[in-house]
Amino acid sequence: MGILDSNMLSLPQPQANSWTPSHRRHCRCFCLELMGLLDSNSALSPSLVGEFKPLNPEEFRKQAHQMVDFIADYYNSIEKHPVLSQVEPGYLRSRLPDAPPHLPESFDVIMRDVEKDIIPGMTHWLSPNFFAFFPATVSSAAFVGEMLCTAFNSVGFNWLACPAATELEMVVMDWLATMLKLPKSFMFSGTGGGVMQATSSEAILCTVIAARDRALEIIGVEGIGKLVVYASDQTHSTYKKACKSAGILPCNIRLLPTTQAENFSLSPALLRTVIEGDMAAGLVPTHLCATLGTTSTTAIDSIRPLAGVANDYGLWVHLDAAYAGSACICPEFHHLLDGIELVNSLSISPHKWLLSYLDCCCLWVKQPGQITCSLSTNPEYLKNKASESGSVVEYKDWQMGTGRKFKALRLWFMIRSYGVDNLQSHIRSDIRMAKLFESLVSSDPRFEIVTPRLFSLVCFRLKLNPLGTGTGTVTVEGLNRMLLDRVNSTGRVYITHTIVGGIYMLRFAVGSTLTEEHHVVAAWKLIKEEADAMHSLDEGE
User: Fold this and answer.
1) Which residue, among 204, 207, 200, 254, has the nearest Cα to 227 in the 3D structure?
2) Dist CA 522 CA 351 (whole Å)
3) What is the pTM for the complete model shown?
4) Of residues 248, 201, 207, the one with CA closest to residue 229
5) Which of 62, 188, 279, 363 is deepest in the core (most CB within 10 A)?
6) Are residues 489 and 536 in contact, defined by beta-carbon separation less than 8 angstroms?
7) Pairwise CA distance, residues 146 & 152, whole Å
8) How far is CA 508 from CA 123, 269, 441, in A?
9) CA distance 52 to 45
10) At 423, which helix (H) or strand (E)?
11) 478 pLDDT tier (thresholds 50, 70, 90)
């Protein structure tokens, strides 16, 4: 009889399947004793857990098949779940043990817990009824590319660490640049180049650091407090975070006001005025971030006039096209990049609208040396003949961190599997569905379109006091907050809001890979039903 068997004899056995407090107390003591034995007597471990093989190819094959079936079933049945999670904060801690398991748990048990505990806490971004924020698009091709990326587990910080990872990324970045009709000055086949970052936040930070260092080379490092950066009040909030991370004083971050009259675009005249005022005060204009498709309303900053102003004063110009940039693979949107040859860098995030899964941001720069000069490292343990020759790209010097995944596989699979024509059709389909929703909103006199629809986002709101009688004390904002809460609480769709220029509005962003026209129509029907219900409540007061 082994140690475990002898200990089991001392554990009181419950009668008639009834556990008393005494039984529970003895069971807890036994478990604690068992864990102590495992910790103190390592000789027990092999007999308890067997030979430890964390990567057994046949076991992996079995579990991977099960996981693919689970994922496919999840995609097939995703509409049965509330789009917006209905759980309360802290729900998961109360469901999971306080301490990790000492012994292995089976794959089936873990997957049951995924269904029981994890899925209820998910907001389902891939639901066809997800119309919030901007979409996080996916595709079968990108998924299998990501599987291969994870399988290889390549840490391609320099060329030698994985030549294929570096060189495929260079090829794919040039492919995307070609799809966008970018000048050769942004391509490896020309004088520039591109790199895959995780998010726009990282891409912007890299450009701010490069612009900072370029300016400090002229004025000296002691002048860092004089550096000033510029964007509009509609620029993504990450810009301010990136600038502060790069050492720009918060008081020197200019977020210039926009107006509804100019569709919330940054004014070149205002930019020039502010820059000249800063220079007169002895400050050093350093970086401008323009946006193609702002987060709130997809407003467009005109590249050519803004870059013209910035170039007059020697600023680094970055174009953040995280969401809307993907649309520029379609010829009808190429004109939005007019003046792109005047900027220093631009970035788009294919994970938002180009079917590539998180995380995937593509950053192009006209003069890569200005990025690598700021971000390069050359420790002895990474030195090698290829790197020292200067003939290869060292992507660790194009980003904040050192390690990096073989992300290019994802885009390579996606572009090759679908081709440019199908990717263009995907963009156009989402825009058609957004136009449909826009027409439905416009057909109801109770609602209004607040800002022009430019891509697949519709900004709309319920007008003031459309409910007939009642107290009339509800504001436009209060009315739309009430409508938003009612719609989202059903779990049938998920939409979000924003406030721009003091105007509270609802955002309906089409783009989830699984969304079809009937989902858009059903979402509008639900919104109308909730507006009708609010009308009935108001009349009953």
Assistant:
1) 254
2) 26
3) 0.88
4) 248
5) 363
6) no
7) 10
8) 16, 32, 11
9) 10
10) helix 408-442
11) very high
CB contact burial 100-118 (16+ within 10 A = b; e otherwise): eeeeeeeeeeeeeeeeeee
Residues 6+ apart with CB under 8 A from 79: 127, 128, 129
pLDDT, tens only, 225-236: 999 999 999 999
Alpha carbons 407 and 194: distance in angstroms, whole number? 13
| Cis, bond preceding 320 (omega within 30 deg of 0) | no
Among the listed residues 284, 269, 282, the one whose alpha carbon sits nearest the alpha carbon of residue 229: 284
* CA atoms of 209 and 371, how far apart (whole Å): 8
Q: Is 239 exposed, middle or buried (0-12, 13-18, 19+ CB in 10 A)?
A: buried
CA distance 264 to 255: 12
∠ CA 303-398-385 to the nearest 5 degrees? Answer: 140
CA atoms within 13 A on the CB side of 190: 20
**Three-class secondary structure of residue 247 per DSSP:** coil
pLDDT digits (tens, 9 = 90+) for 373-398: 999 998 999 999 998 998 999 999 99
Structure token digits, residue 436: 């449909």
Residue with tokens 């996080």: 136
Is the dihedral angle over the CA atoms 479, 480, 482, 483 positive or is it negative? positive
Query: Which single residue is written with the structure tokens 């509330």?
Result: 82
Q: Phi/psi at 92 (nearest 5 deg)? A: -75, -35
Token pair, residue 164, equals: 């294929």
Torsion of CA 398, 402, 406, 407, to 10 degrees: -50
Q: For the chain, how many residues are written?
A: 541
Beta strands 345-348 and 361-365 are: antiparallel
Query: What is the percent of the chain with per-residue pLDDT over 70, rounded to a whole number?
Result: 88
Contact status, residue 232 vs residue 253, Cβ threshold 8 Å: no
Q: How many Cβ atoms are within 10 Å of 265's Cβ, its own excluded?
A: 19
Pairing of strands 227-232, 284-291: parallel
pLDDT of 68 > 80? The answer is: yes
- The maximal CA–CA distance of the chain, rounded, in angstroms, is 89
Amino acid code (one letter) for 119: I
Distance CA 302, CA 56 (A): 55
Tokens 């000789």, residue? 43
**Pairing relationship of beta strands 253-256 and 227-232 according to DSSP bridges:** parallel
Ordered strands of the 447-449 beta sheet:
447-449, 457-462, 503-509, 496-500
Residues 6+ apart with CB under 8 A from 185: 191, 192, 341, 366
* 8-state DSSP, 292: B
For 239, the token pair is 């810009």
